[in-house]
Amino acid sequence: MNVSSWAKCAIRAPVQMVRIARRDLAPAVGGVRAAMTVLPLVAAVLLLAGLGFGTDPVVVAAVAAPVVWLVVLLATVPVARMVAADEAADDCWDLLRGLVAPSVLLAGKLVAQWLLLSAAWLAASVLAAVLLGVEWPPVNAAGGLLGTLGLAAVTVLLGPLLLDDDGHGGGLLAVLVLPAGLPALLAGSQLASGAPAAVWLALLVAYDAVLLTVAWAVFPVMVEGS
Amino acid sequence: MTRRAQVERIVGVVALATGVVAVWLGLLVAPEDAVQGQVQRLLYVHVPAAWVAYVAFAWVLIASVAYLLGRDLAWDRRARVGAELGVGLTALAIVLGSVWARPVWGVWWTWDARLVTTVVLLLSYVGYLGVRGLSGDPDVTARRAAVVGVLAFVNVPIVHFSVLWWRTLHQPPTVLQPAPAPMDPTMLATLLVGVAAFSLAALWVGLRRTRILAAAAPPVAAPLGASGPIRVAAGGQR
To answer: Which has more pLDDT, B167 or B192?
Structure first.
């Protein structure tokens, strides 16, 4: 590959990545479905948590952060279905695979999933602040961004697993996604609760590094065919 | 008898002998714990089961990566066997830990970081085994399972370090740490023999299970030209 064609590829890849991310987030593909699923889920869990845990400020302060991350983890299941949307429509998936490199496809889907999960985390955090009356430390934002990045990698990898020959993959996806999000739940909750930040941020960075590396290495295998 | 069957038999005999020694040491030789009493002897099974489960899950990771690199279904079968062993041994460790905890801690279950992360780890690998039933195509199944096998290992370090990161009721590592806690030499020897017995038994089960799975697998079609075209002679004989 000469310098000219390399430069063309280097310019084309980010453009393709953004197009894939926009396509995944577009209303016609999955944007509306995700919004209609994830946001009511966030609101419902936060409301029920407030109702269940009562108004004791001590109790609320102890459970607010884990509840927020639990909501985000629960949201990964419907969000992961979007990754498989292309695979469900075989022609579309084949077309995408033919047009762009697997790494670009991964990056585009990863960005879309990260944005969706970040939005779910933000919505849950704001609702928790309003409904439960908790104040988040500034480092919570870093925890949210890092934690949802790792979760996005999990959903991109496990989303295609949804599609089985009998259509029974949905429940199993929850069994797989929720445990894989354990480090994000633990570290994110600790950061939001005001625990010493360095060690938990380090855990999240390590979690993201491992998952992004695994996703980069394994995603081409996942898109080989259903 | 094939060489593989011979190895399997030798491993089985050695595992049985080591197991008998471990039972003898655990029940008759090791002293009674000064604080916990006789129930402490359960830990000679609980700890080896947990350790060998870690090794089994590490084996799933190695075999999954090997499958993804070479696409050899034999590695997929090895990964499956590792997961089956790991799930069984983790479940055993949890159940025995619960039985031990009732008289010592006063509860069957507590929301301790080590306990919860271990159950979550168990669920991950139950999910791994569930993925294997999603597709009828062995290659698709192997590919999906390998991805999950790599991902599921993320939680193993969390389980191991949970007793250090949190102030847990579960005790921190006794043997696997830079400065091991003081322990009666007979108790330590019993524990190590227990680990050896569990490791050998797991190896024996793994070898047998892998052989059974290989025998049940559909034959792989030989590439055309490897044995030449099929020639039909007069009378229908090849």
So the answer is: B192
